[in-house]
């Protein structure tokens, strides 16, 4: 049975902590990702800075799936999330049952870390 034009393969979500990337991969192609940094203080946390979905893949829930997986990963690992990425911050506001709010102290620590190394942004 062939794939209809509206059906898309479900992406696999792959966390690469060393690279600070959570990738959505379908048919061996990266179709989206969240770039994040890891914080140790004031508490252990993931701080997403960018969410990107490749052209032609927008509007299919990939960014939402990535944000959900980032929060799920943090939850499994006992980490907080300090969303600097506007998309992830908006996703968290829409899903308070799945995304605990970050303290202002944690958000500021993430902003300072990015300011110290703009390549993270």
Automatic annotation (TrEMBL):
It comes from the Bacteria. This is N-acetyltransferase.
């Amino acid at each position: 049975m062939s794939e209809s034009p509206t059906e898309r393969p479900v992406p696999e979500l792959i966390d690469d902590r060393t690279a600070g990337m959570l990738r959505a991969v379908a048919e061996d192609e990266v179709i989206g990702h969240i770039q994040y940094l890891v914080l140790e203080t004031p508490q252990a946390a993931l701080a997403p800075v960018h969410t990107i979905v490749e052209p032609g893949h927008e509007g299919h829930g990939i960014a939402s799936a990535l944000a959900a997986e980032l929060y799920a990963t943090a939850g499994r690992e006992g980490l907080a999330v300090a969303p600097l990425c506007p998309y992830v911050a908006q996703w968290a506001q829409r899903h308070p049952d799945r995304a605990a709010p970050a303290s202002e102290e944690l958000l500021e620590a993430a902003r300072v870390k990015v300011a110290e190394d703009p390549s993270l942004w």
